[in-house]
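[09:14] KT: can someone run the structure on this one? pasting the chain below
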Amino acid sequence: MVRARAGIPLDDLTEARDWRLCEALLTLHAIADEACAGLGVALDAAGADGLRYRARGRELLARTGSLARIPAHLVRVLPKVRTPPTGSSVRALSRYAAVLVPGVEARWHKAPARRLGLQPCGEGVNYLLLPWPLRVRSSDFRPVAGPLQKLADDPFGFFEFVPSGRLDLDLVDRMLVAAQDEVETVDVVILPESAVEHGEIDDLEALLARHGVTGLITGVRERPARPGQFPRKLGAHRRVLR
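[09:31] RB: done, structure tokens below
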């Protein structure tokens, strides 16, 4: 069906004028998505053929940053871990794979996992939540004029978050020791939005790696390059520590 209609204008697809072709494309999309189950995160066992198929996909992912044989600078296909539970968009059409536009670099890391019953506390993943900063003051928030003009009918303002103290790595170290005394292992450390300055990331990752932590999720901030500009907010930093 698709090959027979290869010359159809794209407008006919966007407006669903040829519904049989649209139906065929959606069917192929569903088949391809189902075939990608287990390539990023394997949730069930597989036979010999399935193991070889998964190994090939993961080899492509590690070597090229994509599950597809198409050059990654044209199309990048990545494993999809979850589908948003609310809303309806193109992203909700797939469950196991996602297509990224060119120019987005991706590196897929596999975090070491404990096998059930073989190691202490091996029945799950232990998360340590670090509430930093311990105290938030009104002086930590500073108004920023910003490059955007205020709308007369909808006035609003901008601010930057600049806490007075740096991340206390000694305190993080003591909290990890205390946590490991309770559960023996900490797998992932999570800090709040804008908790860590960009220049503190390397030292924090080095400290966590010494404690055997395999993952870090934190909000990252950066100071503005020049006065009057918005501070650069880097958003969420997710990293597998190896």
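[09:33] KT: thanks! The chain has a mean pLDDT of 82.
[09:34] RB: yep, looked fine to me
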